[in-house]
Structure formats: structure tokens, C-alpha cells
Amino acid sequence: MNVRIEDQNLRFKISEAELRTLMTGQPVHAEVAMLDKTLVVTINPFGCNEILDPKLVFDQNEAYLRLLVSPSSVQALFNLGKNRDGLRQEVDGISVTFQVDMKDACHT
């Protein structure tokens, strides 16, 4: 998983293997050690609507960045196939993108 934060853009880029995991209803996550804290990033496929719903939560030792997506959004991303744009939505003034990393895509 690759997460990019730039200006008012938040992009979650996943591998095809992570997409398959999400399609089974399981979340995917990554952890990044940053100075004395850990950033835990999770994409959770338990959303109830079509909104790409990001949340950022801090505690004493960790920061959590979660993207809540619906199973139908995961299916829509799968149905896009080899599409560099992915799913994009404006959320509270931030452009949120959910896409599959095309560099890691298998070429058949």
C-alpha cells in the first residue's frame, strides 16, 4: 500500500493482492515508523455507502489513518481493471483517490 498526502489530495494506492484481500471482506493495513511514533494506515471494506470515508486519529504513540470503503466500491475498483484513475471523491474539501498500483499489475 502506498499513501500520498499532497496539498488537498489524499491518495491510497494498493496492489492487486491487496485488492483481492479487500474483495474477500478483509481489511489491509501498513505501518510506518516515523520518529518516535507509528503511522498505521488501514483500508477497511466495511463501509455502508458509496462514500470514500477517510479518518485520522492520534493517540499517545500512534497515528491512525483509515479509509472506510463499501464492498460495492471495492467491486467498482476491481471492475475498472487497468485504469490509472481509480475511484475519486471530494470529502470535506479533500480529494480522496482509491486506486490500484499499475506498476505492480500483472501483465497478461
What's the SSE blueprint?
Elements: E1 2-6, E2 9-14, H1 16-23, E3 28-34, E4 37-44, E5 53-58, E6 62-68, H2 71-80, E7 87-91, E8 94-100
Parallel strand pairs: 2-8, 4-6
Antiparallel strand pairs: 1-2, 3-4, 5-6, 7-8
What are the low-pLDDT stretches, counting only 5+ consecutive residues below 50? none
**What structural category arises from helix and sheet content?**
alpha/beta
CATH C-level label:
Alpha Beta
- Calculate the terminal CA-CA distance, rounded to whole Å: 22 Å
| Strand line-up of the largest beta sheet | 1-2-8-7
Shape: globular
What portion of residues is helical?
A: 10-25%
Mean pLDDT: 90
Q: At the third CATH level, what is the topology name?
A: Gyrase A, domain 2
How can the largest sheet be summarized?
4 strands, mixed
What number of domains?
1
Strand content: over 45%
| Name given to the CATH architecture | 2-Layer Sandwich
- Total strand count, please? 8
| SSE arrangement, N to C | EEHEEEEHEE
Q: Figure out the total of helices.
A: 2
